[in-house]
Amino acid sequence: MSLFLKNRCAIAVLTFAAPLAFAQTNKPPTKPESKGASDAPILVEYKSTFTNYRPFVDQPIVSWREANDTVAKIGGWRTYAKESQQPEPAPAPAPASSNGAKQ
Question: What pLDDT, in 10s, does the model give residues 6-43?
Fold first, then answer.
């Protein structure tokens, strides 16, 4: 067998055998030695993704000249660019729910 063919066979074996070796490395589940702290329930705090939701507010339609004048008074597009780089203000704390679930 030529050296080229041996190298190709070795590469093929390693390519197909390596994923199989990783698939066989399951560890058996371990049991805790003491039943003290592991029996305590894990507290999970729920936070809705809609907590900071701001609904759409329809703005009144103005003429394009008035809109351009307003932008010019504010400082132009550079002011909007700076404003977009500022972090969002901290949200107000959520009110407590009446059903007893933590939020």
Answer: 888 888 877 877 666 666 656 666 665 655 556 778 88
pTM of the model: 0.28
C-alpha of 102 from chain center: 22
Say what the alpha-carbon torsion angle 83, 84, 87, 88 is, to the nearest 10 degrees. Answer: 90
Q: For residue 80, give every residue at least 6 positions away whose Cβ sits within 8 Å of its Cβ, in sequence order, or none.
A: 71, 74
Please provide the DSSP assignment of the chain as one string: --HHHHHHHHHHHHHHHHHHHHHT-PPPPPPPS-SSGGGSPPP-----TTTT-----PPPP--HHHHHHHHHHHT-HHHHHHHHHSPPPPPPPPPPPSSS---
Mean pLDDT of the chain: 77
Any residues with CB less than 8 A from the CB of 32 and at least 6 apart, and which?
A: 38
